[in-house]
Amino acid sequence: MNNQLGQSLAAKRIVVAGAGFAGLSFVLAFDQLWAKSTLNRPEVLLLEEDNRDKSIHKYPYTLCINGASSDDGLAVIQQLGLLDEVRKHSTLNDGDIRVWSENWKWLSSINPSAYGNLPAATMRVAREDLKRILVEKIEQTKTVIKWNSACTSAEHLSNGQIRVSVSGCESHEGMNTSMLDCDVLVAADGANSCIRACFRPNDMTTQYAGATQIGGISFFPEGVPKPVNQDFSLQMSSGEGVCCIYHPLNSKRIDWALSTVGPELKSKTSFSPEKLTALKQEALETASMFQEPFKSIVNATIPGTAFIRPAKEKPAFPHDTRLRGVFFIGEANHILNSFELLGANLALGDGWDLAEQLFCNASLDAVAASYDRLSIPRFQRAFDFSHERINFGHCKGGKWLFYKHGMAAQRALKKVH
Ligand SMILES: Cc1cc2nc3c(=O)[nH]c(=O)nc-3n(C[C@H](O)[C@H](O)[C@H](O)COP(=O)(O)OP(=O)(O)OC[C@H]3O[C@@H](n4cnc5c(N)ncnc54)[C@H](O)[C@@H]3O)c2cc1C
Q: What angle do CA 265, 312, 255 make, to 5 degrees?
């Protein structure tokens, strides 16, 4: 890197708030890109409010990291040189999305293919494995990760720098707060971003996307039943506005989420045994038209995994000049609703793109503009697709007939080819 910005950033300080997929991807990409430069490397400090162990292990779910386009998470993992390592801990999947009728008649399929030389259109990997691989890689670089360090506020200083307040529990006396001044602040602190609250206080609410899911993870010691044991599936009613998404996590566990369009229900993840029975009963009554193995899947729900999940979202925002030097990536910027689980893919892409734009542009304003040109359309495509899925999955009456005929035409075309 030999541009003006690179020279002005040399030997300065970049603070990254949040060691989620966005923050980890940014730090690794930045390190990799800077290694090509002869300039003095800026100091990069990654601050994470959790401790290392909690940060890696706290959410035991499986991620689909896609590889169907250059914008997907697998392409970033490849650019970071981690594809082989991630591959060892993952299962490959062709990324098919199958649409089924209430009595399991195949209605339609989306069959993405792998981009370039990526090994698959989708890879399934435990969140904790992917996080551990990224963290271990950073630990081999010069980036300092400060665990147990929460950013509590941030503000611009008159000299153009940004002051970040950091609260940590590293002292023997308990919590202590310190100030860090930096030249670039990367806000990667997730959906409830504290940095966003400081710079965009009126942008802290999520919107309801119109549908609420109830569901959980079901366990089958003899294996997940067919036909939902392999691919991501969507089961639709015949115009009654009910749909269920099935997402096999491994050969014995499947995530299911049944939804209807209607008023927002309160989000809930903790159920007493009686409340869990009532939730399962509600699912069976709402989707009484769905045939086996729907009932078995609902009945096999593992206590502690059940949820009521209103689809909440927040559109992406551009970086205006008032944010100078402060960049929002991943869910600190934009939140997808739960009908399109692509947030980790987007976060990885954001991290890579921001690091690259810091290398390709001559000013922070130019970085902001060119980063927005990459990140916002990527989010918008996923956002639009999630709404198409909500409209399609819950269609009623004439709209259902329209889709039904469209899917029949697609099946006929597939037979011809
Ligand atoms: C059940 C489930 C399944 C999912 N499946 C998929 C999937 O298959 N594919 C996919 O692409 N996405 C999936 N997602 C979404 C994906 O996990 C998220 O979109 C993604 O983790 C967002 O990454 P992020 O880095 O933006 O934010 P986060 O992962 O939320 O990271 C933010 C980090 O910042 C830290 N932090 C927060 N506040 C502070 C602070 N003040 N100071 C310092 N640190 C702070 C947090 O501890 C955290 O480590 C799924 C989500 C769920 C819940």
A: 80
* pLDDT 10s digits, 286-297: 999 999 999 999
95 in contact with ligand 1, CB cutoff 6 A: no
Residues 6+ apart with CB under 8 A from 330: 18, 20, 21, 22, 23, 188, 190, 343, 346, 347, 350, 351
Q: Is the CB of 21 under 6 A from ligand 1?
A: yes
The residue ranges of every structural domain in the chain are 4-93+116-205+314-389, 207-312
Does 25 sit in the ligand 1 pocket, CB within 6 Å?
no
* pLDDT 10s digits, 143-165: 999 999 999 999 999 999 999 99
- How much distance in Å is there from the Cα of 137 to the middle of ligand 1? 19
Instruction: Provide the CATH topology of domain 207-312.
Output: D-Amino Acid Oxidase; Chain A, domain 2 (3.30.9)
Q: Is 108 helix (H, G, I), strand (E, B) or coil?
A: strand
| Ligand 1 site-directed mutation target among 341, 345, 346, most atoms within 8 Å of CB | 341
CA of residue 49 to ligand 1 center, whole Å: 13
Nearest to 78 by CA among 46, 112, 123: 123
Q: Using 50, 70 and 90 to split pLDDT, how confident is the model at 129? A: very high
Report the greatest alpha carbon distance in the chain: 73
Residues 6+ apart with CB under 8 A from 140: none
